[in-house]
Hints:
- The protein has helices spanning 16-28, 38-43, 45-48, 65-82; strands at 8-14, 33-36, 56-61.
- With 83 residues, the protein is α+β, with helices and mostly antiparallel strands.
- The chain has one domain (14-82).
- Strands 1-3-2 form a 3-stranded antiparallel beta sheet.
Amino acid sequence: MKQDDIHPVEVFAGTAWEAGLLKSMLEDAGIDVYLVDEIRGTLTPWHVAPGGVGAVKVTVSSEDEREACKIADAFMENLKNEE
């Protein structure tokens, strides 16, 4: 992948707690992670997302997208099983 092709990719959007937990899991896998709207998504989620749902976004480099999506998909599946 050329340096010009690398860009940020959103792999998950949820609550601050969910995003923080997934961030920790991705970091454990050696993936650099950034949370977008972490503060605003917690204090005023309706300002950053319609209805305040999915206000905090988990973002990774496009280089790590495939592996991050696998981990995020497993994380979301586990969240569904908990409900």
